[in-house]
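idk why but the lab printer keeps eating my pages so im just putting this in chat instead. protein + alpha-D-galactopyranose:
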Amino acid sequence: MQKNCAKNTNTKITNPIKHIIQNKAVFNDFKPDLKIVSPGRINLIGEHTDYNNGFVLPTAIDKNIYFYFKKNGSPTKCNIKSKSYDVVLELDLDAVKPSETEWENYVLGVIHELKKITTKIEGFDCLIDSDLPIGAGISSSASLECGMAVGLNSLFNLGQSLETLIKLSRAAEHNYVGTKCGIMDQFAVVMSKKDHVILLDCESLDYELIPIDISPYQFLLLNTNVSHNLASSEYNNRRMECEEGLKIIQKKHPDINSLRHVTLEILEEFRANMDSVIYNRCHYVINENSRVIAAAEHLKAGDLEAFGTLMYQSHDGLENDYEVSCDELDFLVKYSKSNEHILGSRMMGGGFGGCTINLIHKNAVAPYVKEVSEAYKATFGIDLTPIVVNPSGGTSALLN
Ligand code: GLA
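predcted complex ->
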C-alpha cells in the first residue's frame, strides 16, 4: 500500500511468519463463522488537522475490504489469506512480530495490540477480499486494521468498545508500520453512517453525523497513481514541525496544549521569532480548522458553492503553507478550475500522491474524466484512475 506507510525501519525483523503463494486446503470450500465488511474513507476537508487535535470532515465510502473469519480449533495457529495478493500468511499468536511485507503489518499490528488487552484470541482462519483500491490514499490500511479489529472482537466475544478498537488500530499503524498517523482514518472507517459525513473533534472524539445530499453533484476521486517517496518521512516531519511551533507558543502560553487552541492572533505574536517554515505549518493548521467548521455549516445550509470554495482554499494551504502536495495533484486541482461544473477540488489525505477529491455535477463526470485523463497523460505520461464514491456506513457484520 502506498499511503503514508513507512516500513518500521527501527525494528529488527526476525520473521517467524510463513507465506504460501498457493491455495491452502483450509480455504477450499471455506465456510466462515463471521463476515465483516470494512470500507475506505474520503475526507471532504480538514487535512493534517487530526494529529493537531483539530477538526475533520470524513466519511466512509462504498468501496470495501471483506473479511471471512472462522475459528479453527487451534490454540494459536492462524491462516490469513489475501485474495488481492494471492498469499496465505501463516502465523502463531505466541510469536507475532513485524513483517517485511507491508499489508501484513496492518494485520499483525492489530493482533499485537489486541493481545495487550486480552488473552481470549485463539486460532482462526481469515480470507480477505477487496474492491477497495490499494495505495490511492483512501485508507485501505485503516480499513484493513479496523476490519481485523472489529472481526476478532466479534469472533472471540472480546467485548471491546468501538473507541478502543479504533485507538488500537491506530496504535497498530504507529507501532508496526511506523506512521504516526492521527485518528481520522480509523474513526471514519468504523463510525461512518450511510449518506452522512462525520464532523469529528479529534481532541474529545465528540462527533456529529451530518446528513449529506449533494445531488445533482457527486464526489469524484482522481487517482494520480503516484506516491512520492517523501510520503511517510515527510508525514512524520510535519507532525514534528507542528510540535515545534506549539513549543515556541507554549513558552508564553503554557496552558495551550495543541495548535487547535492557537488563534491567528496568538500565532502572529510569534511571527518574528519563529522560523518561517514552522510559522507556515501552524498558519495552515489554524486556517484549516476554521475551514472545517465553516464547511460543515455550508453543507448543512446546502451551500455547495461556498463549500467548494473552501476546498480550493484548503488545497492552496496544503500546496503552499503545508507543502504536502506534488505536481500531479496541483495539476489536477488547477485543471478543475477551468470547468464550470466543478465546485471544488483539493488533494486528499497525507499528500505527495494519491487522489484529488472533486465536487462535480453528475452530468459532467464522464466528459471531464475523458478530458482531464488525456491532459494528465500528455503531461505526466501516467494514466489517471477515476473513482466515483458515495458516503457509506462503517465497518460492520455482513449479513448474507
Ligand atoms: C493520513 C493519516 C491521517 C491524517 C491524513 C491527513 O491519511 O492517516 O491520520 O493525518 O493523512 O489529513
